[in-house]
Amino acid sequence: MLHTTKVPVADMAAGTGDPAYLSVEKVSKAYGATRVVETLDFAVERGELVSLLGPSGCGKTTLLRLISGLIGADAGRIVVGGRDITKLPAHKRNVSVVFQNYALFPHLNVSENVAFGLKARGIAPSEIPSAVENALALVRMSDFAGRPVGALSGGQQQRVAVARALVVEPDLLLLDEPFSALDRKLRETMQVELKSLLKTKGMTAVFVTHDQEEALSVSNRVAVMNGGRIEQYADPVTLYTRPASAFVLDFVGLSTHLAGTVTAAGEGWITVDTSYGELTCPGHFTKGAKVLVGVRPERISVGATPADGMTVLSAPVADVMHLGSKTHVYAVPTGDDRLVAELSASDEIRVAAGTTATFSWPAEATLLYPAEATP
Questions:
Q1: Helices marked H in 202-254 — which ranges?
Q2: How large a percentage of the chain has pLDDT more than 90?
Q3: What H or E segment, with its residue span, contains residue 43?
Q4: Contact criterion met (CB below 8 Å) for 354 and 315
Q5: CATH 3.40.50.300 region(s) of the chain?
Q6: pLDDT of residue 2
Q7: Does domain 22-245 match CATH 3.40.50.300?
Q8: pTM (2 decimals)?
Q9: Cβ neighbours for 106, distance < 8 A, ≥ 6 positions apart
Q10: Residue 166: enclosing H or E segment and its boundaries?
Q11: CA-closest candidate to residue 194, choices 211, 172, 210, 217
């Protein structure tokens, strides 16, 4: 069953007061007796690139298909640019979709693939060549106009798919994991190009991905989905630094993850007993409460003398992994608990695997969640 935490469909941009450009309002979808989407609210501002992020089966592609019209909603409404498109078939919504497998026509060359949507819309034949030329120029594929799509690399095919989606000047662009088949370096290049292209065009877009680094790098805001609901909808910085739930902490980025019990509680401070020892941090849980303690790894120092106001734990080191611009230091895991620090290349590495090290971080960097919210 898919539902979300309540997100207003208007005034979604910080302080703008403007109505949302895309509004999905109390939309529901069922297949027989199975409710797949129920009373879902989701909104995107004009010119935003918003990502739907989550594991397979969380509902993100279902939401995309509802917006595109590939499947119909049972209840609620979908509005784009002030136009209610809920009952319109897909070909009348002026919404373009870029699919994971590109969905190019193998019997047509590059120009013919890009021109296909224009011909289907009845655009005058005299106007099509210039429109196709402009679209291919946007994605830097002009030199490949007459080439068969089967002779293109994966990245080139992806550019053609984007050109075909943009040439019809859609009101909204939807992208369903479009870079998942590309190698890492090409994927990162395409992410930068897509973000720049959409900004140049002033395009509003919704991007579906299960790759958290991809979502954070391309998006103005990210909706993290889990088990059919939106756990958090925020800009990438807020999402990473202040995750709203234990799932978001675990899914978005690397993190220390410690289960514990509150052994003492005072004025805004608590002491938590964990498998690595007791730690003190800001919090408002009661004594005896089961909690999850989280810390982003770049906030943790290793082997240094802790300053005043730091939370400190000692643990045996399992591994020190050098990753070029950064180094990860892992403590020996205890059950499902993990303790990991991320050091920059300029940091002096004072520890080695098999030794016991001091892990310390500013107390205010500690993130706390009730244990029942753990993944």
A1: 212-218, 236-241, 246-251
A2: 64
A3: strand 34-44
A4: no
A5: 22-245
A6: 40
A7: yes
A8: 0.86
A9: 148, 149, 150
A10: helix 154-166
A11: 217
Residues 6+ apart with CB under 8 A from 138: 163, 166, 197, 200, 201
Tokens of 10: 């208007």
Within 10 angstroms of residue 310's Cβ, the number of other Cβ atoms is: 17
186-194, long-range: CB < 8 A, 24+ apart: 186/154, 186/155, 187/214, 188/217, 189/155, 190/155, 190/158, 190/159, 191/217, 191/218, 193/139, 194/162, 194/218
Side chain identity at residue 240, one-letter code: Y
* Alpha-carbon gap, residue 67 to 77, rounded angstroms: 10
Token pair for 120: 């289907």
Find where tokens 């849980």 sit.
285
Residue type, 115: A
Q: Calculate mean pLDDT across residues 142-161.
A: 91
In the three-class reduction of DSSP (H, G, I as helix; E, B as strand; rest coil), residue 123 is classed as coil
pLDDT (mean) for 315-343: 93
Q: Where in the chain is the domain with CATH 2.40.50.100?
A: 254-373
User: What fold is seen in the domain 254-373?
Assistant: OB fold (Dihydrolipoamide Acetyltransferase, E2P) (2.40.50)
One DSSP character per residue, 11-40 reads: S-STTT-PBPSEEEEEEEEEETTEEEEEEE
